[in-house]
């Protein structure tokens, strides 16, 4: 009976609940653009615009198709964000112990701590994104075996992957996810902390930044994190979209890079970047605002240290 009040009485519980609100806000607000981005990356011919893909998806399958596969990230977002918040808070201080406990982490600690956080959280994010991508691309990727299964949701996809590929199949793309997320999170947190301090001096210590500061700093942080890692995200999408149930087109990260560039040119590595950047600004603005607002409303404005994730991204 006393579990819930005690859970909310500590900082871990507060960040867990607030992180859930922020993560859900980010997933819902940015998912349609994420579906468009995934289809742009997978497209093998021509350079289809985001608008044309959006229009074709809605015309062919309806608005619901833009949210296909959203259940997987929604189901994991609270746990993922809680892990990110706690890991970042711990590592950002552990990486620079010279900072006084009452002061915000140094920028060095922020960068290194976030780098480690990105690598660790990939263990959760990689399977989630694998399921999401398989659902988003269902029906447009030439894979007769998977099309015959007619996946109805995340659970159906997980069962199908495990049955045909085993546990190793669930973690297909883990290496490239780590290579993408470690530097991505480092640039994300560093940009957020730096920009919000410039826009609202002293807010890193007081935690009293304005809504405008949260929106702008979070949006720019999302843009920075995607820009630095985007080519690896394209590779990750292509590797995770394939399955041993049909002939593999790529044998690994380097092979995927080489074949993609040779067949479609270097521009393929940045296909969908505009969509990703637009989505990142919207998503991270929503995530930061929902996170901070939930803390201030639900927990009566208790003083806290702000840490937050994108590749809900």
UniProtKB/TrEMBL annotation:
Superkingdom of origin: Eukaryota
Keywords from the UniProt entry: Membrane, Mitochondrion, Repeat, Transmembrane, Transmembrane helix, Transport
Protein localization: Mitochondrion membrane
Membrane as UniProt keyword: yes
Classification via InterPro entries: MCP, MCP_dom_sf, MCP_transmembrane, Mitochondrial_Carrier
Membrane topology, from the record: Multi-pass membrane protein
UniProt key word Cytoplasm: no
Gene Ontology terms for molecular function: transmembrane transporter activity
Gene3D superfamilies per record: Mitochondrial carrier domain (1.50.40.10)
An annotated GO cellular component: mitochondrial membrane
Per-repeat ranges for Solcar: 13-94, 105-198, 209-297
Principal cellular location given in the protein's record: mitochondrion
Family: Belongs to the mitochondrial carrier (TC 2.A.29) family.
Protein name per the record: Mitochondrial arginine transporter BAC2
Species name: Heracleum sosnowskyi
């Amino acid at each position: 009976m006393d579990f819930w009040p005690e859970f909310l009485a500590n900082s871990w519980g507060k960040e867990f609940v607030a992180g859930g609100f922020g993560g859900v806000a980010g997933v819902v607000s940015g998912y349609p653009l994420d579906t468009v981005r995934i289809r742009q990356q997978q497209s093998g011919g021509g350079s289809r615009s985001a608008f044309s893909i959006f229009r074709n998806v809605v015309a062919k399958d309806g608005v619901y198709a833009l949210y296909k596969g959203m259940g997987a990230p929604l189901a994991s977002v609270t746990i993922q964000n809680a892990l990110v918040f706690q890991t970042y808070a711990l590592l950002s201080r552990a990486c620079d112990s010279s900072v006084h406990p009452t002061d915000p982490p140094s920028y060095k600690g922020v960068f290194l701590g976030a780098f480690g956080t990105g690598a660790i959280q990939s263990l959760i994010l990689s399977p989630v994104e694998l399921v999401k991508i398989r659902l988003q691309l269902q029906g447009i990727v030439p894979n007769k075996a998977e099309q015959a299964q007619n996946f109805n949701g995340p659970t159906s996809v997980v069962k199908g992957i495990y049955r045909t590929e085993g546990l190793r199949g669930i973690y297909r793309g883990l290496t490239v996810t780590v290579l993408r997320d470690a530097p991505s999170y480092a640039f994300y947190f560093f940009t957020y902390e730096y920009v919000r301090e410039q826009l609202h001096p002293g807010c890193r210590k007081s935690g009293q930044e304005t809504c405008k500061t949260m929106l702008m700093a979070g949006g720019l942080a999302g843009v920075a994190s995607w820009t630095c890692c985007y080519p690896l995200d394209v590779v990750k999408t292509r590797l995770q979209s394939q399955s041993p149930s049909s002939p593999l087109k790529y044998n690994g990260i380097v092979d995927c890079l080489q074949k993609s560039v040779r067949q479609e040119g270097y521009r393929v590595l940045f296909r969908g970047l505009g969509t990703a950047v637009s989505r990142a600004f919207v998503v991270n603005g929503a995530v930061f605002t929902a996170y901070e607002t939930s803390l201030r409303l639900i927990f009566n404005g208790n003083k806290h240290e702000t840490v937050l994730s994108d590749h809900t991204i």
